[in-house]
Amino acid sequence: MSPAHVGAATHCPYCALQCGMYVTREPGAGDGAVTVTPRQDVPANEGALCQKGWTAAELLTGGARLTTPLARERRDGPLVPVTWDDALDRVAAGVRAIQERHGADAVAVFGGGGLTNEKAYQLGKFARVALRTSQIDYNGRFCMSSAAAAAGRAFGMDRGLPFPITDLAGAEAVLLAGGNVAETMPPFMRHLRGALIVADPRETRTARRAALHLRLAPGTDLALALGLLHIAITEGYADEPYIAARTTGFEAVRASVATWWPERAERVTGVPVADLREAVRLLGTARTAVILTGRGAEQHAKGVDTVTAFIDLALALGLPGRAGSGYGCLTGQGNGQGGREHGQKADQLPGYRRIDDQAARAHVARVWGVDPAELPGPGRSAYELLDALGTPGGPKGLLVFGSNPVVSAPRSGHVAGRLAALDLLVVSDLVLSETAAMADVVLPTTQWAEEHGTMTNLEGRVLLRRQALAPPPGVRGDLEILADLAARLGRPGFSGDAGVVFDELRRASAGGIADYAGITYERIAAETGVFWPAPSEDHPGTPRPFLDRFPTPDGRARFVPVDYRPPAEEVDDDYPYYLTTGRVLAQYQSGAQTRRIHALNDAAPGPYAELHPGLAARLGVSTGDMVRVESRRGATEAVARVSAAIRHDTIFMPFHWEGVNRLTNPALDPVSRMPEFKVCAVRVRRPDAP
Ligand code: SF4
Q: How far is the CA of 225 from the centre of ligand 1 (A)?
């Protein structure tokens, strides 16, 4: 800790950069005097914060905070304060009644990518051991699952950046496909110093700072990657010695992209051939280069194949596993990386193990003190789980921790209807989010600077979240809540202490892909983070896991041939425009936290629809007018923002407010079960027009 600071050295509550910050309360200065200042010692931000980080203290002291459990006396009655015993008794009784009537799988759990590693781990264990349900998944399915599946398939391991973030500064060229980091995580930009190529349908803040902007049509990222790969191979940029020494499967990929000549890629994507060639030239002639994907390329019904094609391009250029070069994905949520490693996914056990792997089941069951045969198998993926709620054969009860699906799920109007059909909805949150407002029982929980725990940032660096302040009276931590509930359900032995849970997580992860066995709180503090895998306490951690070999059976990365397919929903006469969604600087995810911070609300007060001037002229609208946007799934109204930054055929809407995701398409990727958030067909009109 800097001698200038007396506060706790911790990390931002929001995104996956996990910027280091001090949180300080002046002694005797009252509740409002909490300050946030940036840390210099954390490589991700090196003393920088964005607006969200600078204003995060208001989350701790603002009036929007829940400080007492709430429950309804009857389904259509108001939420009223109750005691903790009453609230937890209601949850336990409701769970028991549903499971006795409908079976164990009739109660489901929905987690979040912002939960600490300890909470993500304990939630998975709670579902499988205390509830004995297979029905658990989390909102990271909406965020990271396509890149995770593609990286696992190619490299045998999914770690967002398989190199320290500081390596990026040495990359002479960077292709960023579908990421707007200048807005979503501004301190990240300081690490991009080479020629930047941005692939995005919009001229975003990031695209404006790029050497080259590939302004592709929404939903055509896969065609773009295939076209770039074709050029790389046919125009002499393929790194043949690297391909021979470190990969398998190249010939199949060479054959599969043979017909993706540049003119075809231009016709599908709208990106001029000259720009495609220039992008490959920049990447192919750089001594060091990196390809990064973000949600723009990943949140599609073909997201896994799209990321695979970008990985194939990186492998053809000889980038992954080479010092200063590589492929990485930009994890979004605060613990988007750790959140997908410890068992809150439908198909997964701790250590990034598959739940259908018998050896993994035996190992984890041993740590949990249960019979492996007692562990449920895989459950439904996030959207499929939400879609099944309250249906015959679907869950009748749902426990939500750290998520707000009423705002963040695709086809959210339908999802809200499914939540309303439940017999029991329980939400643990720090504010009354849109989802909490629908609950039968609301449990007020602690937040970032009020708790200990670990977060794993987008580099795979495990970080320490230190408690800076005592939580307000009446609030409990999620670990304590899970321990209390488990005991009420006849499964004692769940600890509410983060350190105890982390030690158990280390044992459960030992030998897995994400091996935390050698990581301790003391080490993290002493080393300002430890990169997994770290299988023993004397292991240095693994900042660059692919340098010598890939963690595949033969040590080689795998090329995988993939085919193009169009968006699940194309534009037509009835719905003639593409809708694409994304984030703005001053808001974060579903906005449950940031919409309650005054300065952020002033900067970004509500939803808007960005329209091309040509479309605006046809509609007769100007910036500031209201427009109504409709898809086959729902409608919403927003303020028009007329801008030449958007394509003439596309509308952009940020998704931080309820209503926008009523429009989006839940068509799922067949492998990752990622919904197609990033493109659907819509029509738009003035609200008063017929
Ligand atoms: Fe850093 Fe992200 Fe927090 Fe902004 S929101 S301060 S970029 S961690």
A: 29
In sequence order, the β-bridge partners of residue 118 are: none
Please say whether the structural domain 70-142+335-453+475-497 has been given the CATH code 3.40.50.300. no
CATH topology of domain 577-685: Barwin-like endoglucanases (2.40.40)
Residue nearest ligand 1's atom 2 by CA: 15
CB of 185 shorter than 6 A to ligand 1: yes
- Whether residue 457 has its Cβ less than 6 Å from ligand 1: no
The pTM assigned to this predicted structure is 0.96
- Rounded to the nearest angstrom, the distance between the alpha carbon of 457 and the centre of ligand 1 is 11
Tell me the CA–centroid distance for residue 188 and ligand 1, in Å: 9
Assigned architecture for domain 145-330: 3-Layer(aba) Sandwich (3.40)
Which residues share a beta bridge with 590? Answer: none
What is the residue-wise DSSP string for 529-598? -EESP--STTS---S-TTSS--SSTTS-EE---------SS---SSS-EEEEEE--TT--TT-TTGGGSH
Tens digits of residue pLDDT in 128-158 = 999 999 999 999 999 889 999 999 999 999 9
* pLDDT tens for each residue of 280-319: 999 999 999 999 999 999 999 999 999 999 999 999 999 9
Ligand 1 centroid, distance to 57 Cα (angstroms): 13
Question: Is the domain 8-61 a CATH 2.60.120.920 member?
Answer: no
The domains of the chain are located at 8-61, 70-142+335-453+475-497, 145-330, 577-685
Which tokens belong to 439?
Answer: 């609950």
Give this complex's ipTM.
Answer: 0.99
Ligand 1 centroid–CA 49 distance in Å is 6
Those residues of the chain that have pLDDT short of 70 are 1-6, 28-32
**Atom nearest to 15 CA in ligand 1:** 2
Q: Is the CB of 19 under 6 A from ligand 1?
A: yes
* DSSP result, 175-239: EEES--HHHHSGGGGGG--SEEEEE-SS--HHHHT-SEEE-PPTT-HHHHHHHHHHHHHHTT---
Nearest atom within ligand 1 for CA of residue 588: 5
Ligand 1 contacts CB of residue 59 (under 6 A): no
Is it true that 145-330 and 577-685 share their CATH fold? Answer: no
For 545, phi and psi rounded to 5 degrees? -70, -10
Question: Which atom of ligand 1 is the closest one to the Cα of 49?
Answer: 6
Alpha-carbon distance values, 480 to 93, 140, 345, 474, 488 (Å): 18, 23, 21, 13, 12
